[in-house]
From TrEMBL:
The lineage of its organism: Bacteria, Bacillati, Bacillota, Bacilli, Bacillales. It is an enzyme of class 3 (hydrolase). It comes from the Bacteria. InterPro entries: SRAP, SRAP-like. Keywords: Covalent protein-DNA linkage, DNA damage, DNA-binding, Hydrolase, Lyase, Protease. It comes from Paenibacillus phytorum. The keyword DNA-binding applies. The keyword Transferase does not apply. This is Abasic site processing protein. Belongs to the SOS response-associated peptidase family.
Length: 226
């Protein structure tokens, strides 16, 4: 499961990480509580270079009759990408990177779930594997959307949740974006849990459960807020 994440770096840091050198035409600001249904930053490859743009989180397949289907497509299980009609073609031809510097998940059961922030030990940017598609409404409006690919939890995440986003090793980002690779069997080795010893997690305030909260307090360790 991946339902919330952060991308708090500057635009310059983001562009440097992904070797993007043209002037980004859109608006960008650090986000401390990215939520489903929002426009999110994503990286695609146009055959010549990486491009930074926005996609709406919640994949709407090109064949969908209603864009509301996107709310059921926030995540895509790595194990069944090639089997699900919504993900089969994007897995072959429409792969993207979704940059983040942490993601949230909730530990426990019932009413007492504790939100946790999960990061790399380097505290740097990482790339979640994503798929995207473009849907056209009856009036001709085109909406580009995405989903985050998930896999089974590593040892760190297993104590929090049974699933986690697929985090691609830096050297494999270009492989995931390579449009010439349409044999998905060659991509399956990338869809593994990220090494647990390269990650850490800490508890944060329950305020991250409200999408209207999007500020630095969302990432403060809970011990500092009490």
């Amino acid at each position: 499961m991946c339902g919330r994440y952060t991308i708090t770096v500057t635009l310059e840091e983001l562009m440097l990480h992904y070797d993007i050198y043209y002037k980004y035409p859109g608006r960008y600001s650090p986000k401390y509580n990215v939520a489903p249904g929002q426009q999110v930053m994503a990286i695609v490859h146009d055959g010549e270079k990486n491009k930074l743009g926005e996609l709406r989180w919640g994949l709407v397949p090109e064949w969908a009759k209603d864009e509301k289907l996107g709310y059921q497509m926030l995540n895509a299980r790595a194990e069944t990408l090639a089997d699900k009609p919504a993900f089969r073609k994007p897995f072959e031809r429409k792969r993207c990177l979704i940059p983040a510097d942490s993601f949230y998940d909730w530990k426990g059961t019932g009413k007492h779930k504790q939100p946790m922030r999960i990061m790399l030990r380097s505290k740097g940017i990482f790339s979640m594997a994503g798929l995207y598609d473009t849907w056209t409404s009856a009036d001709g409006t085109r909406i580009s959307t995405c989903t985050v690919v998930t896999t089974e939890a590593n040892e760190l995440m297993a104590d929090i949740h049974e699933r986690m986003p697929v985090i691609l090793p830096r050297e494999m980002e270009a492989v995931w974006l390579d449009r010439s690779i349409t044999n998905t069997d060659a991509l399956r080795p990338l869809l593994q849990p990220y090494p647990a010893d390269q990650m850490f997690a800490y508890p944060v305030s329950s305020r991250v459960g409200n999408v209207r909260n999007d500020d630095e307090l969302c990432i403060e360790p809970l011990s500092l807020l009490l």
